[in-house]
Design a protein that fits this description.
By secondary structure, the chain is mainly alpha-helical. The protein is built from five helices and two strands, in the order αβααβαα. α2 crosses α3.
């Protein structure tokens, strides 16, 4: 793994249950502010890692854009609901309430 990938994985592991964050916030905290798509690619490659809560990462509008990369298209929403995060029409309706802002990492 590259240093950026390692930082992404570490940050995603730190997202608390019942919270979500965005691809862009993870990218910025990991040191690559315009790397939101790279975060998505990294998570997709590691989608079967049970210790990586990728279901807690959504797009900047709260959309579950990664849902098609799970075992079923409804699994991401179900995992979030199981943690108390509401999902309506594949979106977190009150994103600010459930948003976790990752700490900036040191290079």
């Amino acid at each position: 793994m590259t240093p950026f990938e390692k930082r992404v994985v570490e940050l995603v592991r730190r997202i608390p249950p019942g919270k979500v964050t965005t691809y862009g916030l993870i990218a910025r905290a990991a040191g690559l502010p315009r790397g939101a798509r790279m975060v998505g690619w990294i998570l997709n490659r590691r989608k079967f890692s049970p210790d990586l809560p990728a279901h807690r990462v959504v797009n900047r509008h709260g959309l579950l854009t990664g849902k098609m990369h799970f075992e079923t298209p409804t699994l991401m929403a179900q995992l979030l609901r199981n943690e108390g995060v509401p999902v309506r029409d594949d979106r977190i309706p009150d994103l600010d309430r459930y948003l976790w802002i990752p700490p900036q990492t040191d290079e």
